[in-house]
């Protein structure tokens, strides 16, 4: 084709965010679910998120709405949980994080962490008591694992639960501190991980227990439309029914973390896509030197590079989702997905902001908000370094964590 045959009148692809037509990989039901979550995000999150973010407020009124939407404990079966597939949960995570990472984080903490812990490791009584109300968004849960001095190394946790009494009726006394615990100050139940004389165990701590103090962390530069807390346990007395009976050792919390990490693989691509779409729309409307920004080669290079990574990252998420639905997904594959997609999403959000110029530092546009949020996403559920070491051990056979 000669240069003369290449004109500026080439029509846009029907979906400039999906040149590969990856949506064709979805079933009709999956596409319908994705559209339903996207509509919710467009109607309830995007019009309000700048205000929530600026005011550093998590909109508690969304909890029952998200329950009605069917995204709380979405992948779990029974007890009022939706029982949807891994791919469907991933699509929901992607669409919600296109609105804001903080909202997707709430869904993840509620379902992938707190509800999964109860569903997988809890007694029948614990499941019946908590899961239906949590699935409906009537009760908020939190997952207390990270400590002020034990972030990436939970084996070093110092929170301790000691036996209180003897025999089958012996309870527990819980002492210690946790940090960066999402939703702790508004939670109706905390899933708390603590050392015991028998190893790490999980406990359910209902709201209002004497000796529990949850203090929101303020002056954050990221995740402002979300809640993270410092939590102190000072002689908290729990009955024998508080312990999650099937959880023993770090396998308990790590199983839940892998559920959350899987959702992040999809969610990060939602934030990246929304950043790209904001930059694309702006570049087509914004005139500089007499023509739209989108008409300049440097701008097109940025947009194309963003699109490449979004399409690759979304394709990776699809593949891992299908593996998960086939019960073939392995931890190192989750680490690969989380490491790649969050790292690339941050680059995309930053590049998108550069196209917006000075306007991009305001909350009128989403990319810099996404970039700031993604710094938290990059840190929680395993930092880049942790996932690199997981993959490094997998490919070399040598552990390098210590």
Automatic annotation (TrEMBL):
Annotated protein name in UniProt: glutaryl-CoA dehydrogenase (ETF)
Catalyzed chemical reaction(s): glutaryl-CoA + oxidized [electron-transfer flavoprotein] + 2 H(+) = (2E)-butenoyl-CoA + reduced [electron-transfer flavoprotein] + CO2
Alphabetical list of InterPro entries matching this protein: Acyl-CoA_DH_CS (IPR006089), Acyl-CoA_Oxase/DH_mid-dom (IPR006091), Acyl-CoA_Oxase/DH_mid-dom_sf (IPR046373), AcylCo_DH-like_C (IPR036250), AcylCo_DH/oxidase_C (IPR009075), AcylCoA_DH/ox_N (IPR013786), AcylCoA_DH/ox_N_sf (IPR037069), AcylCoA_DH/oxidase_NM_dom_sf (IPR009100)
Family statement: Belongs to the acyl-CoA dehydrogenase family.
Molecular function GO terms recorded: fatty-acyl-CoA binding; flavin adenine dinucleotide binding; glutaryl-CoA dehydrogenase activity
Bilayer-crossing regions: none
The enzyme's E.C. designation: 1.3.8.6
Keywords: FAD, Flavoprotein, Oxidoreductase, Transit peptide
Organism encoding this protein: Pseudarthrobacter sulfonivorans
Record-annotated Acyl-CoA dehydrogenase/oxidase C-terminal domain positions: 255-395
SUPFAM superfamilies on file: Acyl-CoA dehydrogenase C-terminal domain-like, Acyl-CoA dehydrogenase NM domain-like
Pfam family, one: Acyl-CoA_dh_1
Keyword Flavoprotein found: yes
Cofactor(s), names only, from the UniProt record: FAD
UniProt domain Acyl-CoA oxidase/dehydrogenase middle: residue ranges: 142-236
GO biological processes: fatty acid beta-oxidation using acyl-CoA dehydrogenase; fatty-acyl-CoA biosynthetic process
Acyl-CoA dehydrogenase/oxidase N-terminal domain span: 28-138
Pathway linked to the protein: Amino-acid metabolism; tryptophan metabolism; Amino-acid metabolism; lysine degradation
